[in-house]
Amino acid sequence: MDSLAPEVRAILVRPRIYLGDGIAIGPGKIDLLRAVGETHSISAAARSLGVPYKRAWLLIDSLNAGFGRPVVSTATGGKGGGGTSLTKLGEDLIAAYDALEKRLNAAAPPELEALHALADRRD
């Protein structure tokens, strides 16, 4: 990405991937998973992204259903308190998405520059 001209660096490819009919992974879900990993809380992650808790839970639930296993692990309150953490699947999803995003952005400078040039034209 560093090979891009300074004005083009703000343009990034953030892909949405469809794995069959049941799984869609995109920047919103990945950002949510990343925030859950940082905050250890779905509600705190939702707040940090400006997303209603119900929407955050539905996004996570759609990933759980699509993969047939959980992307986060939740623990209810009690003496040590509750909390949420990413499962290995959740961590692997973030890593795979980040690798894909990095590769796409490394390969995309000519197309990104062409799109930027089109945006600059005010005919």
UniProtKB/TrEMBL annotation:
Protein's organism: Azoarcus indigens
UniProt feature coiled coil, ranges: none
Domain HTH lysR-type: 31-91
InterPro entries: LysR_HTH_N, Molybdate_resp_trans_reg, WH-like_DNA-bd_sf, WH_DNA-bd_sf
Name of the featured protein: Molybdate transport system regulatory protein
Transmembrane segments: none
GO molecular function, one term: DNA-binding transcription factor activity
